[in-house]
Amino acid sequence: MIPFIDLKREYAEIGEELTQAVQRVLKSGWFILGEEVKKFEEEFSKYIGVKYGVGVNSGSDALFLALKALGIGKGDEVITVSHTFISTVDAIVRNGAEPVFVDIEPDTYCIDATKIEEAITNKTKAILPVHLYGHPADMDQIMEIAKKYNLFVIEDACQAHGAEYKGKKVGSIGDLSCFSFYPVKNLGACGDGGMIVTNNEEIAEKLKMLRNYGQSEKYYHDFIGINSRLDEIQAAILRVKLKHLAEWNERRRKVAKLYNELLGDSEIVTPIEKEYAKHVYHLYVTRCKDRDKLQQYLSEREVQTMIHYPIPVHKQKAHLELELDNQLPITEKICNEILSLPMHPFMHIDEVSSIAEVIKKCL
Q: Strands, E, within 103-190: which ranges?
């Protein structure tokens, strides 16, 4: 079996470092909002190239709290995409605002910036682009539109740790940016975790209160917040992994390059990397007209694949009650064609070669 991802190989490589980090926290006797979280916030925000980082419980909470900190709520609209993990849109709805979907680019699968302006109304308060699969959205166009209409930009970088747009790390461009540290991410915890990064000190301080019951100091609550704190053990683990992130991303890029070379003469559509981008391949997403047949063929030959994502958010049962009038032909087309192949920094060359050989036999 060739697994889709193999976290056991990751542990085999850095297990001793992780064990020492966890033991350090256990010996300290301090498990919530201590030195590990503070240092990781500083180290990660420095890595991204911003001033402030606020660790939270998950990427989903990062998105929810980012919107909340900006005062986005009932009666407001947020422009985003339907082709994303559902938490992007859930964060908007949980704040009482309404998602407004625009279609995606057919090659990067990120938001089509040329379609944003026509979706803006007097209720629009923010644009929420998703750097999907590890490829950056076209941020220059997005920031120009946001400036023109006085809109916030919240980057969903939950799949793009270390990706770059014109030499800048994604997450350093918008007003606020959100990251997930779910275990399978390029930078993953051993459990849940997330972070919001920003250059705005006032917003960063508000976020620190929001994640901790709205407290300005213990038992003094200035507004309604939630309990969403990155814990000390996960922060310590992430500090270890952050040191390896650049190398692991380069390994992902090498795996992707090999896939591209081996599948270049096949019928499958391989991922692209725009000239402005540095793709970090959180996922290696291909397209095939007979996707289901190919997936079944690979499964029978013990190659594990996944679909990210088979149903766009605007067609999910959870959001049908919004009754949004959406015309998203590219989104709906590619959902029937996309197939994610195994991708992680610990893949062996012979595994990539075997997968490519199986695909060619099927097609």
A: 124-127, 152-156, 164-165, 168-169, 176-180
What's the pLDDT at 309?
97
Measured between alpha carbons, how far is 89 from 84 in angstroms, rounded to an integer? 8
Size of the chain, expressed as the number of residues it contains = 363
CB-based contact 25:36 (threshold 8 Å): yes
Distance CA 360, CA 266 (A): 6
Q: Give residue 215's region: left, alpha or beta (phi > 0; psi -120 to 50).
A: beta
| The two three-digit tokens of residue 362, written as one number | 């099927």
d(CA 21, CA 232): 10
In one letter, which amino acid is 325?
D
Q: Is the pLDDT of residue 321 over 80?
A: no
Tell me if 97 sits within 8 A of 145, measured CB to CB. no
Place of tokens 């081996």: 262
Radius of gyration of the chain (CA): 20
Q: What's the pLDDT at 95? A: 98
